[in-house]
Structures are given as C-alpha cells and as structure tokens.
Design brief:
Elements: E1 12-14, H1 18-23, H2 25-30, E2 33-37, H3 41-53, E3 58-62, H4 74-86, E4 90-92, E5 97-101, E6 104-107, E7 112-114, E8 117-120, H5 171-189, E9 204-207, E10 213-217, E11 220-224, H6 225-244
Parallel strand pairs: 1-8, 2-3, 2-8, 3-4
Antiparallel strand pairs: 5-6, 6-7, 9-10, 10-11
Length: 246
C-alpha cells in the first residue's frame, strides 16, 4: 500500500488484518482521538463500529476521494456520510496522508491532525514479490485474462485479491473467481472450452454499527436495520461454512 512508508510508529493498525483490530480494543478505549485513513467499505464500517460502541471518542476519517464509498450509488453514499456525521465523525475528503510522526497526521494539503491511534483502511498490498514482474501490473497485482489464466500461461490460474481484475476485493468475488478456476482446470484436463469470468455487480452489505447498515446493488440501495441484521446472518453463515470445512 502507498501508505505503508509513512506509518512505522507503534500505534498504527492495518485494518484488513482482523487479528490486529481485535488486539487493539484496549487501545481504542484508551485513545482520545482515533484517525481512520481510507473511506471505502472497511474504513466506513470501522468508523461506524467504533463511534457506536464508544460514543465519547473523537474520530477523524481521511479519504483521498471526494466522497466516501465512491464506487457505490449516491443514495448509499449520502446515507453513510450522514450516519457518521450525525455521530460526530470528522470526515476529511480529497486529502491524502503523507506522514505520521509523533502522534500527528499530515496530509498533502498541510492539514495536521493529532492522533493517538491510526487505522489504515486503504486497501490491500498484493503479496506478489515471487512473481516475475512482467506478469504484474503497475500496482503489483497479477495480470489475468478473461479465463483467469496468468498472462499467457495456459496452465497457471490466479483468483482472489491478488488479481488485477477491476472490482471490489471482496470474499464473495474471490469465491466466484475460484469457481471459474476450478471449472477451467477441469476443462483443460478434458480438452473442453474454458469459461470466462464475467464482471457482474453483486449485492454488497456494509454494516454501520451493530444494528444498522447498507445493502447496495447497482443503483438500488436499502438502509437501516434490515441490512444490519443481514450482515450478522451472512457472517454467521460464512463462519459456519468455515468450521464445517475443517
């Protein structure tokens, strides 16, 4: 991630690593001002989770785009933004964090923010250093074709967050890619035509605290208690399936 370099201090958490977030619960309680860097689904969910559990916390959310959840529809964006603002979250848009030193965040617009604890929610860094650079794009993601074959290698496939497919890096998308990879490996073995992986808008559920949330697909958006409950049910189902597979 482009934010990794400025963040080498102790009170920085990479928020896509759930075990780190869990370990920092006490630091959340002890911190007066928490800064979240990144206003995509992870950053918005984290801000909502903290502010609904710890109503006295001062939270700033810094996002490099001009709106939160920039890939979602306007109704979802407006609801999430209003939800956080009404609970006192300071939303700073169109600014990038360039440095964090001695408890002070500095942005590219020279904005300075005191921070006791910082969460990085700026997306993943692909673990692709073992792959030849010619098979990677400029951000280090593996280049795949329509059949999820790695570049021009007929017998090598890639699926999940590591690919350069232009879609949200979500578990459900990774699962759909894995299904295509399995199908195409079998097709190769049997000399049958391969199946293309098609980009399709999928339902996304974003939680906003324990009992609130957003459900979106294309231009459709549903907000409130129902998406919040759905999020819990989805998580329970996923954990049940994981336990069943071991």
């Amino acid at each position: 991630s482009r934010y990794n370099a400025p963040f080498k201090e102790q009170n920085v958490v990479i928020a896509d690593r759930s075990e780190h977030v869990k370990d920092y619960d006490k630091k959340i309680i002890d911190s007066k001002h928490i800064v979240i860097v990144g206003g995509g689904p992870v950053g918005v969910e984290l801000a909502a989770e903290i502010i609904t559990r710890h109503k006295n916390k001062k939270i700033s959310l810094v996002h490099s785009h001009d709106r939160l959840l920039q890939r979602q529809n306007n109704k979802a964006i407006e609801y999430a933004t209003k939800f956080l603002k009404e609970r006192g979250v300071n939303i700073i848009l169109d600014e990038e964090v360039t440095n964090y030193k001695r408890g002070i965040i500095i942005t590219n617009k020279k904005n300075k923010i005191n921070a006791d604890l910082v969460f990085l929610c700026t997306g993943i860094t692909p673990n692709s250093s073992f792959i030849d650079k010619e098979n990677l794009d400029e951000k280090g993601f593996i280049k795949v074709n329509d059949y999820l074959q790695v570049d021009e290698f007929k017998n090598i496939f890639a699926a999940g967050d590591i690919t350069n497919i232009k879609e949200e890096k979500l578990a459900q998308n990774a699962e759909e890619q894995a299904k295509i990879v399995i199908k195409n490996i079998l097709a190769l073995e049997q000399n049958k035509p391969l199946t293309e992986y098609k980009l399709e808008p999928r339902i996304m559920v974003i939680s906003l605290g324990k009992w609130n949330g957003l459900l979106t697909k294309k231009n459709f958006s549903l907000h409130g208690v129902i998406p919040g409950i759905l999020k819990h049910l989805i998580e329970k189902k996923i954990m049940f399936n994981y336990r069943k597979s071991f």
